[in-house]
Amino acid sequence: MAEWAARLAGVRAVVLDISGVLYDSGGEGGGVPIPGSREAVRKLKASGLKLRFCTNETQATREKFVEKLQRLGFDILVSEVTAPAPAACRILKERNLRPHLLVHDGLVPEFDQLDKGNPNCVVLGEAADNFSYQNLNEAFRVLIGLENPILLSLGRGRYYKETDGLKLDVGVYMKALEYACDIQAEVVGKPSKMFFQSALAEMGVEPQQAIMIGDDIVNDVGGAQQCGMRALQVRTGKYRPCDEQHPEVTPDGYVNNLAEAVDIILKQLDK
């Protein structure tokens, strides 16, 4: 039994990252399930543990994203997913902000109910091919022209993995705009403490009662631990061996994949 399993007392909930844990995105079908992950999700749902999916995915609306995962065979509902775009929309409405969007075309419908005329902030997401010089420069011009520039970044990841390899993530472009405008972005999504707290509140549990399982050493593991949760890193997705010598973040444990993590968690809780 893994050493970390002995520290599972009191766990009532599991929070799962999606990309790199459940599946690798990309390809003709939209992605490939990681072996054992579909059954692992079914086991968690049958166990009585509370379950939440916490993702920084911003290349599609939450509804379309969940539809894709369902086609791939996952037992998952929209109501079980905490994602950055809906959270950003709530912030924009509360603060009367009118966004200039630099996001993926598939995400634009999330913002349909918002006033986007005469923008007074910029919202940045995983824009993929929309991250052109022209589009980045337009976002820069909006920010630099504001007396109090506001940049909302839907996550701050450095890279993520698709079926054909690693891809630059939104955090790279966030840093470029921060540097150019001499500002600091507000991150909506992992590793934001508020984002994790939202997922916990939706399950009705305290941080010490939940365990996070993710492939990102900083945004999944580090973010969850800063919130007071326990966290495991899977050796799938964007995981690299050098993560195990990270200078700032040490997971509570490592597992080869989600299936192994779930089997160990459920065996320990059955004791």
UniProtKB/TrEMBL annotation:
UniProtKB keywords: Cytoplasm, Hydrolase, Magnesium, Metal-binding, Nucleus
Cofactor: Mg(2+)
Catalytic activity, as annotated: diphosphate + H2O = 2 phosphate + H(+)
Cellular component annotations (GO), alphabetically ordered: cytosol; nucleus
Enzyme kind, highest EC tier: hydrolase
GO molecular function: inorganic diphosphate phosphatase activity; metal ion binding; phosphatase activity
Enzyme Commission number(s): 3.6.1.1
Entry function: Phosphatase that hydrolyzes imidodiphosphate, 3-phosphohistidine and 6-phospholysine. Has broad substrate specificity and can also hydrolyze inorganic diphosphate, but with lower efficiency.
Family: Belongs to the HAD-like hydrolase superfamily.
Name of the protein in its database record: Phospholysine phosphohistidine inorganic pyrophosphate phosphatase
Species name: Alligator mississippiensis (American alligator)
Name of the gene this protein is made from: LHPP
